[in-house]
Design a protein that fits this description.
single chain, 436 residues, alpha/beta, Rossmann fold, Pyruvate-ferredoxin Oxidoreductase, domain 3, 2 domains, 14 helices, 15 strands, 34% helix, elongated
Length: 436
């Protein structure tokens, strides 16, 4: 059964003489021509007069924030590449969401963007937009607009769009151009100029002929301006993923519980050191050993944006029950490796009730917790800077009875590339705490 219209029974709400309604009629005609299943069609819009459009079609729709419709549409297309996605934006939206416009074009996302370009913000009072012609009178440019209008077509064209068209709502072949855009694999933009009869027309004595003249005067010619064959991103992404899967199949290393822990409470552990000391890697090793012990484990890391300088802190939660929140109010165990780490841990030390493991330089640390000094020099073999975190953390969790030493050895030994160093670090940590 053929679809005779994709419109519903509601009347458009636009001002008399506004061009938005005729653009939507052209869209409806284009959809009828293609006979697209309404269930496989999504119209995405944002804020502005054009943003009212999606509710007048009997299709799926998504209405979002001003200038962001392309981001929503991109997500829809990537998740469901089988869908036809039509995006409706005003010139205001393309200005506010300019970065999204550029990225949709350069990625060549399979979207068809209809820009309802009436050269001002028609819904909010007729302010000038990025496409307002130079010299035009608006509520924010009463003396005439000093800015040159943004060339939407050239902007997306040079950045990779597959199909680019400029015209007006008066074009007799507008529906045909919309069909072309929708049937072009990749990103298609149709910059459709129309009249805002509430603000722009009265302020500038503007009409149908003025639209044509303005395009010529501004050097923005009408017609199909760009047309190229480019791989559509959603399809190309999936093809690349399949190739990668075939050449490098994903190997998932399962961690199966191999013993049962006696831990009957949730324990919060904080290991605080400096960048480059493998703090996060050490915490991950302990978390893996916990999972092998049939415990739940969660890890949160904190480090500055400089990454290779400053502090490196990991918060580790071990529990026999499901962990709903991976953060901690107060740690039960703190391991301090450096001055950077001491500063980050300092706010917890005065009220600390649990165990604090430190290197010798912090032996006199002011804390209400129980201090245990772990001296790397007392280890049977030299402990390097990158092994100290694992050594001290391993010694701390075994000393406190949180994990079994043998499970910890098997966890670190499961990583062949680093097994020798990691096992040596664990043995050093056990030796420093006097446990085995």
């Amino acid at each position: 059964m053929s679809v005779e219209t994709y419109r519903n029974d509601s009347a458009y709400p636009f001002c008399p003489g506004c061009g938005h309604g005729s653009i939507l009629d052209a869209l409806d005609e284009a959809l009828v021509t293609q006979q697209i299943d309404p269930a496989r069609l999504v119209i995405v819009s944002d804020i502005g007069c054009s943003g009212l459009s999606d509710q007048y079609f009997g299709t799926s729709a998504f209405h979002g924030l001003h200038g962001r419709s392309l981001t929503y549409a991109t997500g829809i297309k990537l998740a469901r590449p089988d869908l036809h996605v039509v995006v409706i934006m005003g010139d205001g939206g393309t200005g506010i969401g300019g970065a999204h416009l550029l990225n949709a074009a350069r990625r060549n996302i399979g979207l068809t963007l209809l820009v309802f370009n009436n050269m001002n913000y028609g819904m909010t009072g007729g302010q000038h937009s990025t496409t307002t012609p130079t010299g035009s009178i608006t509520s924010t440019t009463p003396g005439g607009n000093l800015e040159h209008p943004l060339d939407l077509c050239a902007t997306v064209g040079v950045n990779g769009a597959a199909y680019v068209y400029r015209g007006t709502n008066f074009d007799a072949d507008l529906s045909e151009r919309i069909v072309e855009g929708m049937q072009t694999p990749g990103f298609a933009l149709l910059d459709i100029w129309d009249l805002c009869t509430a603000y722009f027309v009265p302020n500038n004595t503007f009409g149908k002929r003025s639209l044509m003249a303005a395009q010529e005067e501004l050097g923005l010619p009408p017609g199909v301006l760009y047309r190229r064959e480019v791989d559509e991103y959603a399809a190309a992404y999936r093809a690349a993923a399949e190739r990668s899967k075939a050449s490098k199949p994903l190997r998932v290393r399962a961690m199966v519980p191999e013993s049962t822990s006696s831990l009957d409470r949730t324990v919060n552990i904080m290991v605080a050191g400096s960048a480059g000391a493998k703090v996060r890697s050490a915490a991950r090793m302990i978390a893996e050993a916990a999972i092998r012990s049939d415990l739940y484990a969660a890890q949160r890391d904190d480090y500055p944006i400089t990454v290779k300088t400053g502090h490196s802190v990991s918060q580790l939660v071990l529990s026999p029950r499901t962990i709903d929140f991976p953060g901690m109010d107060k740690p039960d165990v703190i391991v301090i490796l450096s001055e950077d780490g001491r500063r980050k841990a300092s706010r917890y030390l005065p009220d600390m009730k649990g165990a604090v493991f430190v290197v010798p330089e912090f032996a006199e640390l002011a804390t209400s917790g129980t201090i245990t000094v772990l001296d790397p020099k007392s280890a049977p073999e030299r402990i390097g800077k990158s092994e100290l975190a694992l050594a001290m953390l391993a010694g701390a969790v075994v000393h406190e009875g949180l994990l079994d030493a043998d499970v910890l050895r098997r966890a670190v030994g499961a990583h062949p590339a680093f097994a020798e160093k990691n096992l040596a670090a664990v043995e050093a940590g056990l030796a420093m705490t006097g446990v085995s």
